[in-house]
Specification:
Layout (H helix, E strand, L loop, with lengths): L8 E5 L4 H12 L3 E6 L2 H22 L6 E5 L5 H8 L11 E4 L14 H29 L2 E6 L12 H18 L8 E8 L5 H14 L3 H10 L9 H12 L10 E4 L9
Parallel strand pairs: 1-2, 1-4, 2-3, 4-5, 5-6, 6-7
Helix pairs in contact: 1-2, 1-8, 4-5, 6-7
Family: Belongs to the short-chain dehydrogenases/reductases (SDR) family.
InterPro entries: NAD(P)-bd_dom_sf (IPR036291), SDR (IPR050259), SDR_fam (IPR002347)
Protein name: 3-oxoacyl-ACP reductase
């Protein structure tokens, strides 16, 4: 399917690996120019090299110009980091057509151990930073008549996980904000805002959570891994490429009537009807 977004510009946060990289890869494969962001320059540079290869292969296959890939290593949760992204040499400034917000989730644990600073950091990274990115880009999207905002949140928004209290709280706040924004005047101007809620994907984040679960239960990692795969109806963890494909579709021209939604991608784990 031609998503009809070749040549557009996307900002993809947390794109050095995992779900963010999966999204950037799928967009580049569809001819979208990307500015990718993460904190660690060495890991981000490796991701950029892989994406450049994908861009070249896609251009040969589909006959469009190879997508540009710009890597900006910075802390996107800071004013300075956001300015670095918006002033990237060769980038679109704040004139992004697509913004994919993504932040490493707050650490798991027991809420009794979290002080105010821990909560503020979680809210800043997983609620306020996405809002700042949206605020900086959404009016430009509306003015041009096209925009796609995708927030990578968590299945814990829909089905809270006890050890992920910081994530449950911060991401739920973002979800409430998005629900209102998506149904405001921007919807009539071609701008959609959606959240993707990942379940158990093979990422470093999942490995970290399983490590905490192993330490808490006294079981070894293999036992915990097998047990967690067993509770997924698909009997496996998701792959970041699967996540990226959904993200790219939501960014495409064919998804213009989908907005304000929380799309769960979890291999069937959520057992509710709605």
């Amino acid at each position: 399917m031609d998503l009809a977004i070749a040549g557009k510009w996307a900002l993809v946060c947390g794109a050095s690996k995992g779900l963010g990289f999966g999204c950037a890869k799928a967009l580049v494969d569809n001819g979208v120019n990307v500015v990718i962001n993460a904190r660690r320059p060495e890991v981000l540079d490796e991701a950029a090299k892989l994406l450049i290869d994908v861009a070249g292969a896609a251009a040969q296959r589909d006959g469009f110009a190879a997508a540009k890939v710009i890597a900006i290593a910075c802390d996107i949760t800071t004013v300075e980091g956001r300015e670095a992204v918006f002033s990237a040499d060769g980038g679109p400034g704040k004139n992004f057509d697509i913004v994919v917000t993504n932040a490493g989730g707050p650490p798991p644990g027991d809420f009794r151990d979290w002080d105010r600073d821990a909560w503020i950091k979680a809210v800043d990274g997983n609620m306020l930073t996405p809002i700042e990115l949206i605020k900086a880009t959404v009016d430009g999207m509306a003015g041009r008549g096209f925009g796609r905002i995708i927030n990578i949140t968590s299945s814990a928004v829909k089905a809270p996980i006890d050890i992920l209290g910081l994530s449950n709280g911060a991401r739920s706040g973002l979800t409430g904000f998005v629900a209102g924004l998506a149904r405001s005047g921007i919807a009539a101007k071609g701008v959609t805002v959606n959240n993707i809620l990942p379940g158990k994907f093979a990422t470093d984040r999942l490995e970290g959570n399983m490590k905490v679960a192993a330490e808490k239960s006294g079981k070894d990692m293999d036992t915990v891994r097998q047990a967690q795969q067993a509770v997924v109806p698909a009997k496996r963890f998701g792959h970041p490429d699967e996540f990226g494909a959904l993200c790219a579709f939501l960014c495409g021209q064919h998804a213009g009537y989908i907005t304000g939604q929380n799309l769960l991608i979890d291999g069937g784990m959520y057992t509710g009807t709605f």
